[in-house]
Amino acid sequence: ILLDKDGKRKHTRPTFSGQQIFALEKTFEQTKYLAGPERARLAYSLGMTESQVKVWFQNRRTKWRKKHAAEMATAKKKQDSETERLKDASENEEEDDDYNKPLDPNSDDEKIAQLLKKHKPGGGGLLPPPSEGEASA
């Protein structure tokens, strides 16, 4: 028995065996909350007090909620980034629609140059370079 500096009994943390933890975890997978009679049966079968089982379940639920919240946050970030990616792709498709439309004869040269630069690598000129057969003609 441990005593604190005032001579009172010091609370010690119980250590559970691997078998006890396994049984507690297995039960927790099936149900997150135990009613009184279930708690009493489990405590008796594991050689623990009802209070120990109750506190273990409280602590385990807290751990489970934190993990669940972290997983939900990760999933939300992933969904948000996918939504953003799809939004960007949609915007690019709209810009591509502009490229595929016939040019307005009144369009300014700057708009035409931007469309060409966007869709043709190194596309500064309006016409493609002549092929060898065309150059000799």
TrEMBL record:
Domain Homeobox: 7-67
Compositionally biased tracts (Basic and acidic residues): 77-90
Gene Ontology molecular function: any one: DNA-binding transcription factor activity, RNA polymerase II-specific
Subcellular compartments: Nucleus
GO cellular component: nucleus
Primary localisation category: nucleus
Keyword DNA-binding assigned: yes
Region (Disordered): 67-137
Annotated DNA-binding residue span(s): 9-68
A GO BP entry: cell differentiation
Sorted UniProt keywords: DNA-binding, Homeobox, Nucleus
InterPro entries: HD, HD_metazoa, Homeobox_CS, Homeobox_NK-like, Homeodomain-like_sf, HTH_motif
Protein name: NKX61 protein
Native source species: Asarcornis scutulata
